[in-house]
Structure formats: structure tokens, C-alpha cells
Amino acid sequence: MEYQRPSASAQPEAAPGASAGALMIDVRGLCKVFGERQVLHDIDFSVKRGECVAVIGPSGSGKSTLIRCLNYLETPTSGTIWIDGKELHGQLSPAELSEVRRELGMVFYNFNLFPHMSVLANITLAPVQVRRASRAQAEQTARELLEKVGLKDKADAYPSQLSGGQKQRVAIARALAMNPKALLFDEPTSALDPELVGEVLKVMRGLAEEGRTMVVVTHEMGFARSVADRVVFLDQGRIVEQGDPEEVFRLSPRGRSWPACAPAIWPAWPPRSTTSSTHLYLAHRQCRRDFSRRGAEKVGQP
Ligand code: ADP
Ligand code: MG
């Protein structure tokens, strides 16, 4: 990994990563192969500084793999990633791995808190060990972050004493404690009881509103629609649609006309569950296929 922002002189004008000033994350030509199976196909993906991007798509489409490649929890098979202008390519050394993970905070669906450590210890561990913060400073920051996520009185609790929503809010505080350049969320509310989803989304909405750079893999269509600046639709390892949430979720994305069958097969909006968002997308795809086939018939093509 070269920890150099590609310089204007070394790169052609529109070179990948060259607009690093505006882009916090820039991914070009990302491919990921597991064994015989290619899971990501030549993905180009970028996130501007301060942007909140929702990544949606059917189960198995490669959403987790995409964000895990960003912080090298999975090593990309090919492609280049720039994080704040720093280039990551191929195998990274342990020091480089540690640096990229420090800069990108990850929040997992299953919280990944250390069960034998208190909330405070979970949050201060990395700042003290990795960022070399003093314990006093790390604890003060941790308490401020706990207040921010509405858990001021839980510093001394253990994860087993918390609800899922509380655990996830601790996990968010833990990610924030490293002062990362961007936060990556992998279905942060998918393991929660429905009544606990709202408290976590509220914290995430607050982070987006204060201008944090975020990539959120989610099936919460309401969140994607009302909080994200951009929605990216992944299907079978490819980005098949992206843009302004209102545009992507409208019946006629990007102003394209839709066939008359669209309203009939398009379920009620907004979808409330994974299944309906998947159905919605499959309907969307089918509509497009029908439309392009009919379009082709009209102009006399096979
Ligand atoms: P999503 O998050 O969209 O549900 P994933 O990124 O988890 O999708 O997975 C995409 C595909 O890659 C799936 O078919 C999954 O089985 C496969 N996959 C994910 N991780 C691994 C792995 N470590 N080894 C082999 N196959 C994997
Ligand atoms: Mg996933």
C-alpha cells in the first residue's frame, strides 16, 4: 500500500483517487472471488466526505463483502481502494491493515462486543491500545460518546446486561471512539427486535445529520430513503442502480418510462421488510427486462 495521495502530476486528470479531496472512499475495479465463485464484479464505488450512502440489494448480492473489502476484513482479489486519498492495493502489511481499520469504524449486525469487558472497557480498549490515548482521556471520551448514544448510565454494565438496541449503541460509540474517517455499518438493525430498531436508527440519523461519512448496508428502506444522501443497489455482485433515494425509489428511476405492468407487480411502497425490498427489486428488474424486450420488438429487433 502506498500511503500517498495520487498526485496530479502522476495521474491523468480524471484518474481514480485523484479527486480525493472530495472523496473519502474511492473504489475502482473491485473484484472479489471466493474459491470458484466471483462475488464482486468490477465495482466502482465512491463516497464523498460527509456523505451517507445506503447499500441495498437482495441477500447474497455481495453487500457485506463490499464493505468488508473496504477495510480489508476481506482482501480484494483485484482493484484499488483509496481511503482519504491513500491507496490500498493487493496484500497489506499488518501495520497497513491496522491503519486502514483504524480509519474505518465498523459496526456489525451482531455487535461484536467483548462479553467479559464492561461497556467502558469495550469503548476504551482500542483508543488506549491502538491510538495510544491516555486512559483518563479515553474514559472521558467514552463517557461523552455514551451520553451521545443515550447510554450515559451504562458505562459499568456488561454486554449481557444490555438489550440488543443498547449493545448496538455501545458498538456505535466504540466505533466513534477511534475518531474514524468513515463508519461502515453492516445491517446494524437486522438482529434487533422490531421495537429496538428505532433507537439505533435514531443514533445513526444523528450521525448522518452531523456530517459523518457513512456507508450503511441496510434493509431499512425508510432509513435509506429519508437519511441517505445516495442509495446504491447491488445485485449479483454488481451495482445495478444508484442515485438520489427519491429517484431510485420512484416508479420511474432516473426519469425512464416504465411499462404499464409496473403498478400491478410493484408492491406497496415503502416496503417494510427484507422480503418486500427484495420483491420490490426483483419486480423492478423484471419490469426493466419486459420493457427492453418490448422496446426491441417495436423496432423490429430479435
Ligand atoms: P450479502 O451481504 O449481500 O447478503 P455477502 O457479501 O455476505 O452478501 O455474500 C455474497 C456471496 O458471497 C454469497 O453467496 C456468500 O455465500 C459468498 N461469501 C461471502 N463470504 C464468503 C466467504 N468467506 N467464503 C466463501 N463465500 C463467501
Ligand atoms: Mg450481508
Rg over C-alpha atoms, rounded to the nearest angstrom: 21 Å
Mean pLDDT: 82
Number of helices: 10
Separation of the first and last Cα atoms:
49 Å
Ligand inventory: adenosine-5'-diphosphate, magnesium ion
Backbone shape? globular
How would you describe this structure to a colleague?
There is one protein chain. By secondary structure, the chain is an alpha/beta fold. The chain has ten helices and ten strands. Strands 6-7-8-3-9-10 form a six-stranded mixed sheet, with helices on both faces. The longest helix has 25 residues. It starts with 22 loop residues before the first strand and ends with a helix. The relative contact order is 0.13.
Layout of SSEs?
Layout: E1 23-34, E2 37-48, E3 52-56, H1 63-70, E4 78-83, E5 86-89, H2 94-103, E6 104-107, H3 119-129, H4 135-148, H5 164-177, E7 182-186, H6 194-209, E8 214-217, H7 221-226, E9 230-235, E10 238-243, H8 245-249, H9 262-265, H10 274-298
Parallel strand pairs: 3-8, 3-9, 6-7, 7-8
Antiparallel strand pairs: 1-2, 1-4, 4-5, 9-10
Helix pairs in contact: 3-4, 3-5, 4-5, 5-6
The structure holds adenosine-5'-diphosphate (ADP) and magnesium ion (MG).
Adenosine-5'-diphosphate (ADP) binds next to helix 1.
